[in-house]
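Lab notes, practical 5.
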Amino acid sequence: MKNFSTWILVMFMAMFWVFRIIVALAAQMHWDFAGIEPLNQQMEIILLFVVLVCIILVVKRKLVGGLLYLLAYGLYFGVDIVNNIQSITNAMEGANINSYMNLFVSFVGVIIPVAVMLDLLMDKNRKNHPKDKKTDWFYTNEKFDRQLDERADKNNYRTL
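Output from the prediction step:
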């Protein structure tokens, strides 16, 4: 993790993970946490553990971690975004501040995985072919070094 953008995104992932822990705990204790509540309590707890693994994989720059993170949160919060937008646009239910807060949290829950996935995809080329000017001159001259070694081996000097 050499990029500043990766550090920032991992910190946002961790902060959102802690936020979701607080939301799950508040729902379990029957506290009102600004009207934000988990969509499914059991799925929320499973996702907390899955996201913990995803954070570790993203720190290690594994594409599987970003993909799993995007898939898990995209499916979990994507459905909630569609449902909240439909309930807000329908005048029958009457939109309240809780539905707007849940919609905002769901948007954040989808935006962070998309940003993480884009960061991993943009950095993939640099991970596979890193350029380091301090050491490239040494490692890229293997052919020249082998020629010098073969030439040096042909010298047969006698030592008395």
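Observations recorded by the TA: The chain has one domain: 4-153. Residues 26 and 32 are 7 Å apart (CA to CA).
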